[in-house]
Design goal:
Glutathione_S-Trfase, Glutathione S-transferase Yfyf (Class Pi), Chain A, domain 2, Glutaredoxin, 9 helices, globular, 52% helix, 4-stranded mixed sheet, disordered N terminus, 228 residues, alpha+beta
Length: 228
């Protein structure tokens, strides 16, 4: 066995997946060196089913194991690499972080990220037809609803789950950054949310995300700008 290959940490991912981005942000924040391996799971030759029987990305090869499910991966990383901590100490504060992670990974994804990205990005990349304008319009309207909810949180907190940055912020930013790549976030809708995103976007952990480029889908002109 090649020991160096066995010890290399690899993340099987796709650039504009919010779930992959969430794990990338945690790895970068904790300064864990990782090799990014793109898995175009819709193409012949993908080994996604072998790595994860659920057929989902991301998959992290680490500590001699294949780890799946972004929330489980992120909490594993936080427990095995304590600094900086992304989960609070108290049970009620951890509850709030997990509640918000679920909000963005489930509700926000179902109403905003998945429909808009499917129609405007993945149909094009996978050559699966033309976007449905009604689906896109509904997704864009839902983004504004969620921004209003985020604003209501940020009016009383420095970060989404409280006074310190947590995994909840990275989860939300992972989703929003995908939509911002294609210029589908109306930053004039909430200055509070824009200021929050500017703070998190300025972190060193965000740099690799801002360098992403999906072939055939160009990022918005402001996407990589810290002052936007």
């Amino acid at each position: 066995m090649n020991n160096s290959s066995h010890s290399t940490i690899r993340l099987y991912h796709i650039a504009l997946s919010p779930f992959c981005r969430k794990v990338r942000l945690v790895l970068a924040e904790k300064r864990i060196e990782v090799e990014l391996v793109e898995d175009r799971f819709w193409e012949p030759g993908s080994e996604i089913q072998r790595r994860n029987p659920a057929g989902k990305l991301p998959v992290l090869r680490m500590d001699g194991r294949l780890l799946a499910e972004s929330q489980a991966i992120c909490e594993y990383l936080d427990e095995t690499h304590a600094h900086p901590a992304l989960m609070p100490h108290s049970a009620i504060d951890r509850y709030e972080v997990r509640r918000l992670c679920s909000w963005f990974d489930d509700k926000f994804n179902a109403e905003c990220t998945r429909p808009v990205m499917n129609e405007r990005v993945w149909k094009k990349v996978m050559r699966a037809g033309y976007p449905d304008s009604r689906t896109v319009k509904a997704g864009l309207s839902a983004i504004r609803y969620h921004m209003d909810y985020m604003k209501s949180l940020l009016e009383h907190r420095r970060w989404l789950a409280g006074d310190v940055m947590t995994l909840a912020d990275f989860t939300a930013a992972a989703h929003i950054s995908c939509l911002d790549y294609i210029s589908d976030v109306d930053w004039t809708h909430s200055s509070e949310v824009q200021e929050w995103y500017a703070k998190i976007k300025s972190r060193p952990a965000f740099r690799s995300l801002l360098a992403d480029h999906l072939p055939g889908v160009h990022p918005a002109p402001h996407y990589a700008l810290l002052d936007f």
